[in-house]
Amino acid sequence: xxxxxxxxxxxxxxxxxxxxxxxxxxxxxxxxxxxxxxxxxxxxxxxxxxxxxxxxxxxxxxxxxxxxxxxxxxxxxxxxxxxxxxxxxxxxxxxxxxxxxxxxxxxxxxxxxxxxxxxxxxxxxxxxxxxxxxxxxxxxxxxxxxxxxxxxxxxxxxxxxxxxxxxxxxxxxxxxxxxxxxxxxxxxxxxxxxxxxxxxxxxxxxxxxxxxxxxxxxxxxxxxxxxxxxxxxxxxxxxxxxxxxxxxxxxxxxxxxxxxxxxxxxxxxxxxxxxxxxxxxxxxxxxxxxxxxxxxxxxxxxxxxxxxxxxxxxxxxxxxxxxxxxxxxxxxxxxxxxxxxxxxxxxxxxxxxxxxxxxxxxxxxxxxxxxxxxxxxxxxxxxxxxxxxxxxxxxxxxxxxxxxxxxxxxxxxxxxxxxxxxxxxxx
Length: 427
Fold this sequence. Notes:
Layout: H1 7-17, H2 22-25, H3 40-54, H4 57-65, H5 72-83, H6 90-95, H7 103-118, H8 145-155, H9 168-171, H10 218-221, H11 237-245, H12 248-254, H13 263-274, H14 283-288, H15 297-308, H16 311-314, E1 325-327, H17 334-338, H18 350-353, E2 361-363, H19 385-396, H20 404-415, E3 420-421, E4 424-425
Helix pairs in contact: 1-4, 1-7, 5-7, 8-13, 15-20, 19-20
């Protein structure tokens, strides 16, 4: 550990590194001499592979000095294993004596997690809780109303597409949970996309956009589909801008808010509108805010199972997802078991980084309104919500044979996540 931390940072870093967390959770860490021994070395390499897939300590430590780099999912994972006394695993402790955090170190880590989470809690929202991994959706977030109005019109405007037939709303329909409910979206001239469309609702809370994270924010995301030949099929952004420049009424209104009609200003307006597509006041939100009658007994059981299986470590925060990339198949070969050939869409984050570590690693989808957005996963392989729950328990939570009752309880809980848009519950 480089000794360049101060105050509480030093306590946190010391607690993590003194207990040998870096051996399994940081790449390229020098290993102890006995890692070269037969059997022991093989076991350590297996632990390292699994450890890196689940959690990256090096990226968490970056956030000690720069909180903007902290992942809410990393904080959630660390909190859960500390609370449950799950790390390090027993076989690791047999090799690395004294590698378990003591009570003082646990307190220091949990206090740091709590303070770090406070920075991301939604403002002016009752019953937020820095100890809890999930939070209620705020009633609104700050936007520019005039630009929102422009973005609204653009969202439903076919001139973004090459032949005028496709709108943003075509694949992200507000009356269908923010999706099109197809396995893959239908674009210009009936062309089929390669991947299941994620919901636009609550996308404002995502740390990046697209399954592979290739867009930094909503405005950046809006730049891609219009010129994608399979999606909206415009030849260039110059062509798109020219079409809008010809509309004198549009141009007059647009130039009241932006200096020019450009790719950047058009997509900024769309992104500003999409910030308003949030869905507060679900039954679960009301439960979090103190109404303990908002959930049924079955849904409460499902929520407890959701926490027990650590689903809330990846599906964390306000959106209950969208805060990290995670490896698909931590506890089994999902892609082999799927029984269909691999596609480019299966690469996940690797498609952007070309880092082997990112192969099959995807941005975690939000669970908000999940009951309305079937089919599920990037490949649409789960046709019903209960199928998705079973698969997640098996491949991400190491429940080899999920009990039907548990699946039903968790599914019922997920149905409580359907929120409201413009004061009306989504359908």
